[in-house]
Write a structure and sequence with these properties.
By secondary structure, the protein is of the alpha/beta class. It has an 8-stranded parallel barrel, surrounded by 5 helices. Strands 5-6-11 form a 3-stranded antiparallel beta sheet, with no helix packed on it. The protein has a two-stranded antiparallel ribbon with strand order 1-2. Helix 1 packs antiparallel against helix 2, helix 5 packs parallel to helix 6 and helix 9 packs across helix 11. About 1% of the residues have low confidence.
Length: 364
Amino acid sequence: MRAVVLYSLIRPALFRLDAESAHGLALAGLKLAGPGRAPACPAALASEVAGIAFPNPVGMAAGFDKDGEVPDALLALGFGFAEVGSITPLPQAGNPKPRLFRLVEDRAVINRMGFNNKGGEAALARLSARRERPGVVGINIGANKDSDDRVADYATMARMMAPHATYLAVNISSPNTPGLRALQDESALTGLLDAVIAARDEACGSANGTADGTANGSGRRPPVFLKVAPDLEAADIDAIARIAIDRKLGALIVSNTTISRPALASPHAGETGGLSGAPLRDLALQRLRDFRKATGGAIPLVGVGGIATAEDAWARIRAGASLVQVYSAMVYEGPNIARRICKGLTSLMKRDGFASIADAVGRE
């Protein structure tokens, strides 16, 4: 709760700063608040996805905590899980600044960060130190921009991070690393996932050869989640769905930011990069429905993009998401957003006659 009070006091000052400086201060505030204790959640919000017990379905998406500095502080804010990263093998500065823009009039964000992070070794030191702490912490892995072998980068990161991750998220959908989204092509994706799964199994001592592992602990394998873009054609969706089912992925995360541009009111509307926040909501919801249809419900889905309220989260769950994630909405709603959405979901479940979140998945 200290972080919530602190945010209410400093929000006006944060919005007078450029977006990236404000983000840095938000991270500093969470470090100051400390890890804390995760609040208790109603049993009806709990579910099991990919062998992992989630106390509630509302997670923090990757991108907020790029270097794995504050996952436990995020869990203490009421998030059911926190996904850190994207983390690359080597440190990289990312794209030139300015590269993060608030579109206040649209309740949106445009970013072209470019996988800026301090690298795998720095994150590993922090994440290995918190390994015995409770809570679901996913690790989102990526490739260095100037890498000669991006598949090898993902394998390196899977091998490095698997022992410390509740799940691994393979991010091939950022629009800000040239050529990265080409890894969503069918042949490239198959090779990439096979390399990641093999590296994960090598690190965790398993020869199973599939990605449907269980929550990580001693001798157990973290499941592999795949994060996809919303800017996909129908054939791409069908191909990704087939590969995900064949490789027994733990989940598909639908979706990342969009390079499309709906009508926007902000003067920053023309900035290049990935658009997130409220304008992404309808597109991300439709892509979730598309993947639900393409997979036939055979693989769990994580709904991301434009979720700011309990109603937004409920629509995503009813459309097929077992879990949801937020990020941009916290810029505008503040750090109490997870608690607020969870409280609203409890009421919406009762209103619509569902005893649990799991019962409502795909029941629109």
